[in-house]
Design brief:
The protein has about 375 residues and is an alpha+beta fold. The chain folds into three domains: about 20-35 and about 270-365, no CATH class; about 45-170, no CATH class; about 190-270, no CATH class. The chain is about 30% helix and about 30% strand. The protein contains nine helices and 18 strands. The chain has helices at about 35-45, 50-60, 115-125, 190-200, 205-215, 255-270, 285-305, 315-325, 350-360, and strands at about 1-10, 15-20, 25-30, 65, 75, 90-100, 100-115, 140-150, 155-160, 170, 185, 220-225, 240-245, 245-250, 275, 305-310, 335-340, 345-350. Strands 2-1-6-7-8-9 form a six-stranded antiparallel beta sheet. A six-stranded mixed beta sheet has the order 11-15-16-3-17-18, with helices on both faces. Strand 6 (about 90-100) and strand 7 form a beta hairpin. The relative contact order is 0.16.
């Protein structure tokens, strides 16, 4: 598990640290304080040599545009990953995690080089590189290389020809990168949720899912997808729920049960890994949040998962504090990490401090 996290020159953080992390960590703070950026940093840190987290973030945030002059291709504006949205020669951001048994170090740097030198160095040092937007028959002139190093000491690089601006990358991946098996993100995409459900059918994890749904609706017996792929419905659909012997579309049961489905499926699909949940309280009433936190804590312990969630809702952190006070929770199991814009370090609340804050009505957001 991550014990602490340090970020440099990434997104809105010039320098930032999250200390004293636990198994379940709730990140609180005002809007635009960087909560989501921390989840992105954790995902990147645990995705060595995999560009998919970058691509997903860029598409989610809309940090791209279409270029007709480049053959109607998608241009990624990578500069937004860097502090101040500035990406120049020798720019670099770094994410460092303190884990059990050592440190995890991830860096993304921009360097100037000639492609000839770059290829020669790769061969001499017996490294494996993958190039995008490069035809080996082209002349080897002055160029730029985006290079990042994973915690397994391997290197992954983008080559940028001269006709591309330095803060852009053409998205011309030959194949879709595989999902990272160590990190699970809660998704509201119906097709993703159906795929996650299919992974646990007829396994012990399927019963964990039903237990979670019964927090919302005690009469739930079974669920099943109504489509295996290509579901075109919007919102919380794609499943039929057997409730008190009656087949009911999940969309007819309200958003709360769909949200519980999303979160639970994301958990049971990443045993031994990390779960990231942005705005965990979306669509859930305060009373349901208490049951959700109980479920998350119990499942995280059972499947050895570390959880990072964000919120700016006081009911959300107070419900976690209530669970921490009255359930069998150890001091290192739960933390609240308060982020303040412009500060270099979060304020960490452990189980006891959370209970005191809730009882005294102290605002921790």
């Amino acid at each position: 598990m991550l014990k602490s996290l340090k970020i440099e020159n990434f997104r809105c953080f010039e320098e930032f640290e999250l200390p004293q992390l636990g198994r379940v960590n709730l990140i609180v703070g005002k809007n635009n304080s960087g909560k989501t950026s921390i989840l992105e940093a954790i995902n990147i840190l645990n995705s060595p040599n995999n560009p998919k987290p970058f691509i997903d973030v860029i598409e989610r945030r809309g940090e791209y545009y279409w270029s007709e002059k480049d053959g109607n291709r998608e241009i990624f504006e990578v500069s937004h990953f860097f502090y101040g949205h500035k990406m120049e020669n020798e720019s670099r951001f770094q994410i460092v995690g303190d884990i059990d048994g050592g440190k995890v170090d991830f860096s993304f740097s921009l360097t100037n080089n000639t492609l000839q030198q770059f290829v020669e160095n790769s061969v001499r040092e017996d490294k494996q590189y993958k190039f995008f937007n490069y035809d080996a028959s082209q002349s080897l002139g002055k160029s730029s290389v985006l290079e990042w190093k994973g915690f397994d000491n391997s290197v992954f690089s983008f080559f940028l020809p001269l006709n591309i601006q330095i803060n852009q990358i053409l998205h011309v991946l030959q194949q879709e990168p595989k999902n990272n098996p160590m990190v699970s993100l809660v998704s509201s995409d119906v097709n993703v949720v159906i795929a996650q459900f299919n992974q646990i059918v007829l396994t012990p994890e399927e019963e964990i899912l039903y237990e979670s749904l019964r927090f919302i609706e005690p009469g739930v017996e079974r669920i099943a997808p109504v489509a295996t792929q290509g579901y075109r419905g919007n919102g919380n659909g794609g499943f039929i729920v057997l409730v008190n012997k009656q087949r009911v579309p999940i969309g007819s049961m309200g958003y709360g049960i769909w949200r519980m489905l999303e979160i639970t499926l994301a958990m049971v699909n990443v045993p031994g890994g990390i779960l990231l949940i942005d705005e965990i309280d979306t669509g859930l009433h305060f009373s349901v949040m208490i049951d959700l936190w109980k479920l998350i804590l119990a499942t995280a312990k059972k499947l050895d998962i570390q959880v990072f969630a964000t919120t700016h809702n006081s009911d959300c952190w107070k419900s976690l504090a209530e669970v921490a006070e009255f359930e069998n929770v150890l001091n290192g199991d739960i933390t609240i990490q308060r982020i303040e814009k412009g500060k270099k370090k979060s304020v960490a609340f452990n189980r006891k401090e959370m209970a005191i804050a809730a009882q005294s009505d102290i605002e921790v957001r």
